[in-house]
Amino acid sequence: MANPEQLARLRGLYAVTPERADGGALLADVEAALAGGCRVVQLRDKLSPMAERLARARALRAATLRHGALLLINDDLALCRLVDADGVHLGRDDGDLAQARRLLGPEKILGASCYADLARAQAAEQAGADYVAFGAAFPSPTKPEAANATVDLFFRAKTALTVKVCAIGGITAANAPTLLAAGVDLLAVITDLFSAPDIAARAAAYQRLFEEAQS
Length: 215
Ligand SMILES: Cc1ncc(COP(=O)(O)OP(=O)(O)O)c(N)n1
Ligand SMILES: Cc1ncsc1CCOP(=O)(O)O
What we know:
This protein is an alpha/beta fold.
C-alpha cells in the first residue's frame, strides 16, 4: 500500500497514453494534458522497441515531475524501476499482484485491472493494490473486446472496497458524470482526451467535473 500522501493523489483524470509512432508527438500531447491539470499519467506502449519505450518513459518521468503529476507504467515493473516511476498498472497476464507488491516495496503505487469482476478486485485489494480498475465502462474504440463494467458495478465496488476505484473504456467528458455519481475516483481515458482538438482544454474539462462532483 502506497503512503497516504501518494494515495490522496489518486483522484481525477488518469491520462493513458495512446500508441503514437512519433515519441515527440506523444510527449507534446501528454504535456498538453498536464498543462490542462491532469495529475496522473500512464505510459501504455505495447508497440515500441525497448529502447524507445525507455526513452519515452524517461521523457514522461521528467514531464510529470515538472507538473507535480504521478507517472505509472503499464505492464512493466522493470521499466518502472529503471525510470523511478511512481508505480505500475498490471492486468491478468502481467504476473502475480502480491509478488509485484513485494518487488515494488511499500511506497510505490500498484494498480490492477479487474475487468467487470468484483471478486477479483477484492483479491487485488488483499494482495496490496492501491487502486482497482473496471472496464470497459462504455464501448471502447481502443479495446472493443473489453468486458462490460456497468454503472451498478461501480456503486457496488465503492461499497465493497476501501481502495480507490478507477473506470476505463469509452469514457468521454459527456458520459463521465454517470461514473462520478457512483463515486469513481479515477477516470482513465485515451481517445476522448488524446483525440480532442484541444487536449489541454479537454483535460481541464475533466478536472472541472471532479471539482463539481466534490462540491
Ligand atoms: C487504468 C487501467 N485500467 C485498465 C487497463 C487495462 O489493463 P490490461 O487489462 O492489462 O490491458 P492492457 O492495457 O495491458 O491492454 C489499463 N491499462 N489501465
Ligand atoms: C486499455 C483498456 N482497457 C479496457 S478499455 C481500454 C482502452 C481505453 O481507451 P479509450 O478511452 O480509448 O476507450
